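Hey,

The postdoc asked me to send both predictions to you directly instead of through the lab channel. I've kept everything plain text so nothing gets mangled by the mail client. Protein one:
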Amino acid sequence: MRFLADECCDFAAVRGLRAHGHDVLAVCEFQHRSVDKDVMELALAEDRILLTEDKDFGWLVFAGRMDSPGVILIRFPASARPLLAEAVLKLVTECASQLLGAFVVLRPGEARISRTTGRP
């Protein structure tokens, strides 16, 4: 699968996905101080699911009605950080077919998947 990791995304998720053969473009590797709308437009243009820890993307998708190829919003407290990469990989492995066009809130031990577009 193809992902775009926002600047605020814990790089452990990027490393974990890359280690399992996923195509992950990390914003922090080519740009600093990105604008959320531009990041979402890049994800859409390249058909990449966005990985982020920034709740503002929820506003863009739901209130702003911005098209999205899919968003995974990671909500892990500091105490659960060691489990983050494994949780992202488990989500992608077990729910791959549900992620395109979805808005996912990933927390330790749970994932809430909401449909945001007409994508299958």
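Protein two:
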Amino acid sequence: MSTVVDVLAAVLMIAGSALALIAAIGLFRMPDAYSRIHVATKPATLAVVFTVGAAVLRVPGLAPTTKLLLAVLLQFWTAPVASHMLGRAAHAAGLRPSEPWVVDDLQAADDEVDGEAAGGGVSAS
């Protein structure tokens, strides 16, 4: 049984390391900031899950396992929020993608807010 757990932990560690390498290479290969944000969060989060999963299989006891699972939970909680905020900040700064978007919902929402602030909203009469 211990051999099976060791092999599974090794496979998870190698898969997590490969995903982290893919994320690191992707940071240099992607053409714009939005693609880099994506590649910095999606594969990197999965890499953390795989490597921590391997560590959970190898550490003895409940306390270290709980800490490791808390690390995964915090990764899942903070990575999407951080990438979302980076994307909104890039959009607000006027940074455009390398290829034009088909639909820019954020720009449409900004235009609506600007129109209402300029008096273009619905009148109260």
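Summary for protein two, as requested: The helical segments are 2-29, 33-58, 62-92, 105-117.

Thanks,
C.
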